[in-house]
Amino acid sequence: MKTTIAEVGQFVGQEVTIGAWLANKRSSGKIAFLQLRDGTGFIQGVVVKSEAGEELFKAAKAVTQESSLYVTGLVQEDSRSPFGYELTVTGLEIISEAADYPITPKEHGTEFLMDHRHLWLRSRRQHAVMKIRNEIIRATYEFFNERGFVKVDPPILTGSAPEGTSELFHTRYFDEDAYLSQSGQLYMEAAAMALGKVFSFGPTFRAEKSKTRRHLIEFWMIEPEMAFYNFEDNLKVQEEYVAHIVQSVLKNCQLELERLGRDTSKLEQIKAPFPRITYDEALEFLHKNGFEDVKWGDDFGAPHETAIAQSYDKPVFITHYPTSLKPFYMQPDESREEVVLCADLIAPEGYGEIIGGSERIHDFQLLSERIKEHNLEPEAYEWYLELRKYGSVPHSGFGLGLERTVAWISGVEHVRETIPFPRLLNRLYP
User: Fold this and answer.
1) Which pairing describes strands 342-347 and 352-360: parallel, antiparallel, or unpaired?
2) Residue 105, CA atoms < 13 Å, CB-side half-sphere
3) pLDDT digit string (tens) for 318-368?
4) Which residues form the Aminoacyl-transfer RNA synthetases class-II family profile domain (predicted)?
5) Going from the N-terminus, what domains does the chain have, and what CATH number goes with each?
6) Per residue in 288-315, pLDDT tens?
7) How far apart are CA 341 and CA 278, in angstroms?
């Protein structure tokens, strides 16, 4: 019976064959222990010389790290294994023998591992992070599909930018200027006017020369946009969505979280609703906690966000930022024009902002004025303005950064581990 490691629990007491790679091995006298992986999981294969015979035992001891194999064996329950099963090996066929695999069980430096990212992905730790990333993506589609959202794919090449072009990658589109998208939001607003509730999931690019553990040059965003949703409606969707993906990871990635040493008790508390504080309240908190130099109108940096988040055991919304800090399309608060109806969602444990969202301006005249105030080219936004001419409605949306969310939920320190092939300020290889 040919199967995968993830499915061996269905075949306890039966002999199966698995296509696998040898992650590691050790031997103790007359027993060889093979650490096997096949992409779906990891399992230990045990070769007992007295039972397997001299030839098979010799082959098991000789096989090299990361050689590919067909392994046949008897599935046994094993309470000592985190996985719960092991394989008593009865047959071994080498498909391709690996020589001098560069990533050995010893410690390696970060740059070395990043140079060998194509191989580092095979490790238990990276496997666990990628499985958690995949579960967040699966749960994302589940959440929005169950609530009647339509998946829409905005373009990656654009002629304008939602937040100006200072941090965008410029390219030529035949004889025109073009940019790699930093957000699909404007296009998602158009889609929401056609389909009601929509979401996108795709790559975005920021030409920001940052080296922090929270930043990537290329990252993935989930961007919902909702017609007839006001600011409060928007916050409710955000907290329900984040709670859903956290609980899904807890339910479906227990082994991966354990492998990463994640304190799951902190994740178990992540249920809606989330606490909310205004920008003004956040500023007051910072002044009382050693950040007296932050003035009204200043943006919050990583140390400020971390200090605020440490006061809560759930993600916290910081709402009503000064208009001057935010992009041109955000709806001002009717009772206080100097702030906008926006919120940043700050993750606990120092992981920073994972969501930025707002109610969008739906008034044609006000949006026209904002475009001029931000020195944007009106011609480039003519189509965007037309959305306000033909049946404009209040609408809201947000964007969640996938890699920061993966980092927070999995508990890894740096976002470079949360994407298969990270693009950093100093790295375009492999």
Assistant:
1) antiparallel
2) 8
3) 999 999 999 999 999 999 999 999 999 999 999 999 999 999 999 999 999
4) 130-430
5) 2-96 (2.40.50.140), 118-417 (3.30.930.10)
6) 999 999 999 999 999 999 999 999 999 9
7) 10
